[in-house]
């Protein structure tokens, strides 16, 4: 189709995305946002100014040609929009759903200076969904075989991206996944109503079509050490993308009571063991009538909204800071409020109280006020003396963050680590051990899907260079 003059419509209001009604979705696990139709996508695309110096691209960790794919959508060239995305982003359907666009690409959108920014993430999701639903087979362009083998440890967003980039270069790639299903945090940590499993499955199948082998239930550190992968199994390089799956607790009395979960355990039981499909799946998870979730990040909101869908009568977020310091996405906070999640801000738990049978019966908290900003840049919560109180709950879910699983670090002590067991890398993703690279949450702590993908992509470039030259800078 020949290029036409692009006449943007900046004053048109940002196009809303159709969603399930709150009173319906709070009791089902179907996706909340239903996605743009072709008509709505074109309408929103024409809000893009097609800037000559697109700052939105600078805000994207993988550098997508955002004006390019949006223009294709506006002109009805949806397949071209998809392939433009795929040049830069191996997982567009996933990123279009879970990336925090408001703090990345959309934050820098020029439209946002006077109006609402262009809905870049929603358009990305539309292009990816359109191609998936079209039934067309993807055209994978793969270089001739290089004769080199790479082991990827972990199949989360960093591992999948690194694997895809290396497979395109003609390298033989094998992913080792500790769990029985590939996808990492995308399948065990994000609920079905935000990211349907079928979307992740399609992306994983695409990798297999590119020749990537995936070995599940394969724990590196138990099955093989990294040294064994390099010296005995014939791999020329290794990428560590094992994420941050070790949950943190507060260290307060009562955390060992029955009815206390980490958000990681709770969401894994629901997502990966299919508790959300009970009774069709024989794997229910016990949930009480009144649930308290400690923390206010995206994981905390996922846990709170999941508890509601499993039948809890009340779900409370308990957060020690104020509304202005909430780390979760604004859209997810709004969805949670619409569904009935209750927010208890400036409130910090100090004890979990149990009954005579060892089950949770109440949460003891103290009121807080905000002080000066701490090292995180957020205002420090200060306890208010004498403000302690109890409120009855029968389930407590801790969602205050997570760190790296230490198995790799313990079995491969010549890989240098930093505080909390985070693996130290250089700017290209190289670790202190020759031939071993790392990226994603294992080097950043808990971060975003797109940031992990960006690191997987960067490391893949460095691995490709290493395999071609043998140089270890």
Automatic annotation (TrEMBL):
GO MF entries: glutamate synthase (NADH) activity; glutamate synthase (NADPH) activity; iron-sulfur cluster binding
Enzyme class, UniProt record, top EC level: oxidoreductase
Assigned EC number: 1.4.1.13, 1.4.1.14
UniProt superkingdom: Bacteria
Coiled coil ranges: none
Residues in FAD/NAD(P)-binding domain copies: 148-456
Region (Disordered): 1-25
UniProt KW Hydrolase keyword: no
Gene3D superfamilies for the chain: Alpha-helical ferredoxin, FAD/NAD(P)-binding domain
UniProt keyword terms in alphabetical order: Oxidoreductase
Domain Dihydroprymidine dehydrogenase: 25-135
NCBIfam families: gltA
Name of protein: Glutamate synthase (NADPH/NADH) small chain
Source organism (scientific name): Thermotomaculum hydrothermale
């Amino acid at each position: 189709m020949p290029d036409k003059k692009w006449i943007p419509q900046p004053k048109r209001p940002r196009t809303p995305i159709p969603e399930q009604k709150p009173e319906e979705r709070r009791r089902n696990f179907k996706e909340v946002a239903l996605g743009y139709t072709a008509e709505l996508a074109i309408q929103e695309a024409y809000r893009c100014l097609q800037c000559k110096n697109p700052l939105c691209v600078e805000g994207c960790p993988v550098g997508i040609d955002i004006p390019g794919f949006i223009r294709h959508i506006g002109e009805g060239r949806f397949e071209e929009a998809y392939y433009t995305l795929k040049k830069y982003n191996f997982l567009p359907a996933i990123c279009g759903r879970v990336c925090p666009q408001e703090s990345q690409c959309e934050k820098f959108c020029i439209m946002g200076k006077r109006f609402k920014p262009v809905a870049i993430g929603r358009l990305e999701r539309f292009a990816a969904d359109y191609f998936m639903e079209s039934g067309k087979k993807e055209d994978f362009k793969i270089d001739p075989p290089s004769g080199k083998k790479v082991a990827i440890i972990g199949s989360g967003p960093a591992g999948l991206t690194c694997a895809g980039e290396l497979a395109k270069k003609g390298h033989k790639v094998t992913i080792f996944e500790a769990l029985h299903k590939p996808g990492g945090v995308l399948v065990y940590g994000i609920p079905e109503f935000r990211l349907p499993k079928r979307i992740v499955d399609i992306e994983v199948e695409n990798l297999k079509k590119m020749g990537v082998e995936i070995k599940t239930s394969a724990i590196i550190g138990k099955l093989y050490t990294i040294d064994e992968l390099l010296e005995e199994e014939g791999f020329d390089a290794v990428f560590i993308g094992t994420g941050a799956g070790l949950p943190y607790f507060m260290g307060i009395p009562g955390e060992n009571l029955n009815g206390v979960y980490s958000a990681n355990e709770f969401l894994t039981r629901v997502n990966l063991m299919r508790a959300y499909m009970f009774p069709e799946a024989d794997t229910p998870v016990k949930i009480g009538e009144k649930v308290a979730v400690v923390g206010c990040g995206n994981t905390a909101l996922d846990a709170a909204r999941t508890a509601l869908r499993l039948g809890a009568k009340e779900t409370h977020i308990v957060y020690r800071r104020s509304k202005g310091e909430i780390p979760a996405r604004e859209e997810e906070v709004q969805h949670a409020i619409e569904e009935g999640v209750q927010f208890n801000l400036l409130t910090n738990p100090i004890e979990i109280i149990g009954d005579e049978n060892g089950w949770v019966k109440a949460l003891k908290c103290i009121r807080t006020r905000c002080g000066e900003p701490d090292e995180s840049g957020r205002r420090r919560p200060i306890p208010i003396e004498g403000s302690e109180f109890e409120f009855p709950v029968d389930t407590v879910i801790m969602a205050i963050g997570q760190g790296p699983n230490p198995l790799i670090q313990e079995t491969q002590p010549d890989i240098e680590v930093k505080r909390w067991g985070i693996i130290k890398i250089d700017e290209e993703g190289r670790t202190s051990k020759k031939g071993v690279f790392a990226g994603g949450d294992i080097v950043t702590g808990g971060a975003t899907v797109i940031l992990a993908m960006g690191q997987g992509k960067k490391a893949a470039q460095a691995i490709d260079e290493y395999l071609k030259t043998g140089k270890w800078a």
